[in-house]
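stage 2 :: seqdesign
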């Protein structure tokens, strides 16, 4: 999956690394937040997150998004892509909130471990990309992990697979857009807002809405869903323009690792021997994938240095937006 603006041929910028750690760290700690919003149900939490994400994004866009960027973004093609992106991210958010509040944090973490591998599979199926041998090894190990976990659970790990598929699809769609985090969040949440508001009104008329009924603290926590959605996106965008894709690719494992640790240590979710074996296979797949990505990144940097030494046009060096494979 490509990251617009990420640097592929330079050494990591310390601030960029910190921004990346901040973004992935916040995402990794989300399982601590969603249970605080009970007794609100997952759909009410999702609807509130959409509404307050829109409010937050609109405020940020006033200060951070020039008018010219809106003119470039809002055309028929991009609007269709953003509509598709809004559907996939709503599915991802909703399933994740439900999983966390249903004591399935570990399975949710599995989804985000699988996501980079599934992104590669989508590249092969939809973009006709060719994989190196080590990438095929990584995919094979991930498939074996799913088989093992299916036997252990007694059914496929649907939560993990749905989260991975929805987020990989979301990343693929966003890859087709050359736009920043704030404006895309604004449009996506704006497209979802009428449905979210309609659902909240329905709950209100049915007397089941918890917003405004559970005290000031509960209401404040629901409102906070907007800022905590926007802040890690901004940190990620800042990191992506400052550090190489290989570094960003390694940092992404902070999120599922924190989720996994929270699920096992803090929430006390059971890990059977079969689940340890399944997760071990996934970790092995990611180790292979990361080693291959680091090898490719080092080779590109060496090629770039050689090209500079031979007087190549510096504008062709370290092209923006290369895949971390």
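stage 2 :: out
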């Amino acid at each position: 999956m490509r990251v617009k603006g990420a640097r592929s041929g330079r050494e990591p910028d310390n601030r960029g690394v910190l921004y990346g750690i901040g973004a992935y760290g916040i995402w990794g700690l989300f399982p601590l937040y969603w249970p605080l919003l009970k007794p609100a149900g997952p759909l009410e939490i999702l609807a509130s997150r959409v509404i307050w994400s829109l409010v937050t994004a609109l405020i940020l866009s006033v200060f951070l998004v020039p008018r010219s960027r809106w003119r470039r973004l809002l055309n028929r093609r991009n609007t269709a892509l953003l509509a598709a992106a809004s559907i996939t991210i709503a599915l991802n958010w909703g399933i994740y909130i439900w999983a966390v509040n249903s004591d399935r944090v570990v399975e949710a973490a599995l989804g985000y471990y699988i996501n980079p591998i599934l992104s590669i599979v989508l590249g092969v199926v939809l973009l006709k990309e060719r994989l190196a041998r080590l990438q095929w090894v990584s995919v094979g190990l991930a498939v074996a992990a799913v088989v093992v976990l299916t036997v252990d659970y007694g059914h496929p790990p649907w939560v993990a697979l749905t989260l991975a598929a929805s987020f990989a699809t979301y990343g693929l769609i966003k890859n087709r857009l050359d736009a920043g985090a704030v404006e895309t969040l604004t449009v996506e949440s704006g497209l979802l807002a009428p449905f979210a508001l309609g659902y909240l009104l329905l709950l209100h008329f049915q007397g089941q809405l918890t917003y405004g009924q559970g005290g000031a603290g509960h209401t404040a926590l629901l409102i906070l869903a907007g800022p905590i959605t926007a802040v890690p996106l901004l940190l990620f965008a800042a990191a992506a323009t400052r550090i190489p894709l290989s570094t960003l690719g390694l940092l992404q494992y902070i999120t599922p690792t924190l989720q996994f640790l929270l699920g096992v240590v803090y929430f006390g979710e059971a890990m059977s021997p079969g689940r340890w074996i399944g997760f071990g296979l996934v970790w092995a797949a990611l180790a292979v994938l990361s080693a291959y990505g680091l090898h490719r990144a080092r080779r590109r940097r060496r090629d770039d240095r050689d090209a500079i030494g031979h007087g190549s046009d510096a504008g062709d060096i370290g092209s923006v937006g290369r895949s971390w494979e």
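stage 3 :: structure notes
- Residues 273-309 form the longest helix (37 residues).
- The chain has one domain: 14-308.
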